[in-house]
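Two quick folds needed for the group meeting slides. Do the first one here.
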Amino acid sequence: MGFPQERLLLLPLLLLTGIQPGTSLDTIDYVPAITKQPLEGSITSSTFALEQPRGQFSSSSIRDSDDIWLVVAFSSASQNFDPPQSPRDIPHASTFLDKKYYMTIRASRELYSDKESSPGIRVLRVGNETNCTANDCNQPLPGPGPYK
């Protein structure tokens, strides 16, 4: 059973880069969107699928080697997000219920380029990993949200 799209608040998504000692964090002005692709289960009670942020990381301050993260938060906690200053400070899914936000789906700029390198549906499915063992797991969401 899914949850209504209005329960998923799509406000500016914060994607971070450069979480390495001595580097800075960059944010982008980007509003995520639920995929418009004909995808069954684009919103469920523990997952949702976003369009990939293609072409959003062309800034010269973002290097190819920088990590890009998706930040997921309960709507009531998104203003409390404290960007990590080192890799050990990254809030992972295992801390979501305590912190009310976490970072997941680590990627690189190359993955989100403007170029169409392969056919198929390109989405970010939040909450997709059910057998999590790593800290940067994308585990199912604990309920219908609302999320930002």
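Then this one, please, same format:
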Amino acid sequence: MSNSTPTTDNEKKSKGDKLPGSPSRVLHIRHIPSGVSGAEVVSLGFPFGKVTNLLMLRGKGQAFLEMASVDAAVSVVNYYTPAPPLLHNQPVYIQYSNYKELRTNNQRHQAIFSKFGFVLKIVMFHKNNQFQVLLQFADATNAYHAKMSLDGHSIYNGCCTLRIDFSKLTNLTVKYNNDKSRDFTRIDLPFGDGQRTIETSLSTPFATQNTVFPSYTGPPGFAPVLGFPQGAGPSVLPVPGALGPLTVTTSAAPGHMNVPGVPGNSVLLVSNLNPEAITPYGLFILFGVYGDVHRVKIMFKKRGIALVQMADASQAQLAITYLNGQRLYGRVMHATLSKYPTIQLPREGQEDKGLTKDYSNSPLHRFKNPCSKNFQNIFPPSATLHLSNIPNSVTVDDLKNLFTSKGSTVKGFRFFQSDCKMALIQLGSVEEAVHALIDLHNHDFGENQHLKVSFSKSSI
């Protein structure tokens, strides 16, 4: 099995076709101290947006970190260039790579779980006559959503059903890259004999809660293909209850689940907003794609800063993952956890000008039903939107004109062949799609029929 090396879709461009310093979503990180983990490198990009791939060159003290968008990569470089970040108390240096994307020979292993987060490690084994797999995500929130979305689903139609739970393990130590174990951040590991060890020490603040257990109940020899996208702090998925499940507790509000160990604050601090365009309702709709928003407060004296209170900590982390670094009304928005545990409503008579809103009982919450398909359809902002709940009387031209009237550029449209109440619409940019979602989610077609808008993983 050959080592993994980054390549581009096309042949590498001729010399001079792309300047080394020109923006790319792949970042080159240098002077990485020995002993730094893949999760620590991923954490450098985590605050700025979704991380989609990582390649560690440990012998050279270097790494390639792939962000989901060029804008996110630009934010990383702009932030760290004046003040290089420290890993193990040593500065590391970040610049744009010549690669447009990272592609590794291991990507064939990364299919089922890849849409939920960056997968750091995989270990496959047999125990109690069952084939089992441990998966370690880079982020606990990704592991949570993988479990919620895939538990009980079949790899093939009618067979190979996944049983997923949280593992008690903290971290996987992979010694060999072969068909039984793999560390996707290490290309320097030997092929070995397939044996692996598992560390159970408390090596991250997320502890056992980042470990998810996918149970594979299909025939032996048909190993599920596994993969992931991003985060900060490991999450491990095992297969059938061999190592013991970790209970996911349910909060008092139905449909709102907490992942033990994920930092408990559910209030986000959102900054660098456009004060001329932002509204509490707009933030409610946008952040509501990734969780149920209970309250929003735009600061009275600093209109470019807001607080957004999600239903629970895992939803807050998910919103940070997908929305931090996203362009909104001409500015790159920053989202992080706030020091405040809750948003206080204004006292009676206190001047507020409608900048604080309570949405805790809103009928527009997407995740109030624990069985909702919305849990399975959480995707990063994209230029293509998924439309549903479209009345039969509404035509293609009606929908195109509706989006155009909101300032969108419609580049593509198609109804679903299997369901004419759903469609995909491709707009001019991701930012246009974000604005359109805010403006048109819950659009009233009349007769109590409201349009539902979400981001799509597909393109037209």
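Slide caption for protein two: The mean pLDDT is 76.
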